[in-house]
Amino acid sequence: MLTTEFFTKKIKEEMDYLKGTGIQGVRSLEDILEQLEESEMFTPEVVLIRNNQIELVFVKKSEEMQFRTTYSNQLIDREYMNTLLRISQIQDSIGSLIKTIIRINKENIEG
Fold it and tell me: What is the pTM for the complete model shown?
C-alpha cells in the first residue's frame, strides 16, 4: 500500500521555506491536509498562501495551482517581486506533490 508520508514531508519543506523567507499568510501543513480531505463541494480550493497581496491555491476540480493577486492596481516594488519569484519557483512542485497525495489517498480508499 502506498503512503503519502514522503510527499507530505516535501510539502512541509516547501511551506517552511516560504515561511522562512518572510512571506506572510503561509498556511500550516495541517491546514492544507485538512482542506485536501474536505469535500470539493464545501472546499473547492486548498489555500496554501493568502495575504493582502497574493494567494496561492490548489483548485481541486481542475487539479491545478493558481497564483493570483488579491487586488488590482497594486504597486509592485522589489520586495513584492522577490515574493512572487520565490512562490513561482516552487508552485509546480507543490502542485505535483498535492496531486500525488490525492491519487494515493484515492487508490487506498478504492483498493
Answer: 0.79
